[in-house]
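subagent[fold] <- orchestrator: predict structure for attached chain, return tokens only, no commentary.
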Amino acid sequence: MKLNRKILLLLVMGVLFIAACGGSADGDTENPQVAGTGAVETLVASFFETQTAMFTPPPTGTNTPLPTNTFLPTPTIPSNTPPPLATWTPVIVYASSTANLANLALTPSVTGTPPTATQNTGALGVGCNNLAIVRDVNYPSGTTVKAGDTITKTWKVQNTGSCNWEINYALVIIKDEDFRSTWSRIGKVVAPGSWAELSVVLEMPKHDGTFTGSWRLADAGGNAFGATLSVSIVVVE
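subagent[fold] -> orchestrator:
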């Protein structure tokens, strides 16, 4: 900036010197001072226009906001205080006087017909022989049959013992006052755990009524074992 001022001062002095020394050779009547002053003004105006064109205003500064500080959450300091102990409230039990047991009915009275105990087939074994009933094959108890007819009643049974039933094993009568029953030997060997069918031929009475009969299987020596095979038939004329 100081250099520009010096150049400007030198130019002004040069112009003034030229204006003072110069004049019209042919006796021009124009005022030399006026002409020099105009030349100086023109020169100064031209100089300032050049300086103005060369001068570039500095760019307007843009303030960039600084980032906002993010603070970390305040850590939670665990408390060293132990949790309170559970409280225990004792329960007080008051004893009462014992009732007069003589006035209590300790033995209830039984009314009606007591149920019949189920026969335990496991207790009916003889030696290594035993038998359990699987189901009625035909003529279940309560079946109606015409008087005088002859039927063959059959049961499915299982050898629940630990030895074979031999071919000479046969049924024996437990109760048969109403039927004239007949049967034969089993005729085959039945291994333990196997099933077989036992049958008896029954001749119905000649009159109405309900009639029953029962049989058991026996070994070659006549020793009956296993569950009892029973039937109840309703006879009608």
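orchestrator: received. Logging for downstream: Residues 32-54 form the longest helix (23 residues). The chain has a mean pLDDT of 74.
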